[in-house]
Every structure is written in C-alpha cells, then in structure tokens.
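pasting for ref
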Amino acid sequence: MHPRVSRVLKALIIVLLGLLLASQTLVIPEVARITAIRNPDVAQLEIPGIIGAVVFIGLIEVTLVCIWFLLSLVQEGRIFRVEAFRYVDIILGALTAAGAIILVSYIVIVASRAVSLSLSLLAVLGIVVSAALALLLVVLRGLLRKALELEQDMSEVV
C-alpha cells in the first residue's frame, strides 16, 4: 500500500472519530430529548435510546481504531502476523454486538408499540448488513490465516 493512501485513510479515521464523538455527546442526546417531547407516549425510551445509540457508535469507533492499527501493520509490513488477528477478532465482535443492539432496540420499540414500516425496514437492513459484514470478515480472516501460513512456509523454504 502506498504510504500516501495510508496517511489519507488515517486522516479520514481521525475525522470520522471526531464526528462520531460529537454525535455521541451533542446530537444523540438532543435528538432523544426532542423526540421525547414530541412523542410523550414513548418518552420512557429516551434514556435507553441514548444508551443504545452511544454504545452503537462506540462500537463503530472501536472498529475504526482497529482499522487504524491494521493500517499500521500494513505500513510496517507486519500484516501477516498473529497480532493482526486480534484486531480482526475485535472488529468481528463489534459487528456482532452492533447487530445485537439493533435487534434488541427493535424488540424494545415493537414492545412499546412505537414501530413503523420505515423503522422495521431500517432494523432489518441494519441486522442484515451487520451479519453480511461479519460473514465477510470471517472470510477475510480465513484469507489472512492462509496468507500467514503461506508466508511461514515460504520463510522456511528460503
């Protein structure tokens, strides 16, 4: 990977982390407050909604930090090392947890009778996307494992 590409990706990760942090601290509480005022019948979901959204975004932040470390391993030429699996496993856990948060949130919303068609579609979309990304990551993890094995075999031959 060209060093310039890696630097641009890392800069974008910094920007994304800043925007996500701002969303966690400023946007989510304000949107939850306004929603609770406009819809008093679901006002009891304000605090659980804030917690769920903040944790969900936190999982995205964890994923971005792991991607940062994986980029660093690529830059150093150490991506085919066992330590790379730790970051891949953390990302996989974050994707799984994100899908679970979406599912639990949807169940809570359905139980409170605040569900709509668009919300149902978004929930299904979120669950399917998180599952698809997790499965894709499992495949990529297998490819990383195979590449690591091939690199070890080549180093033994040489």
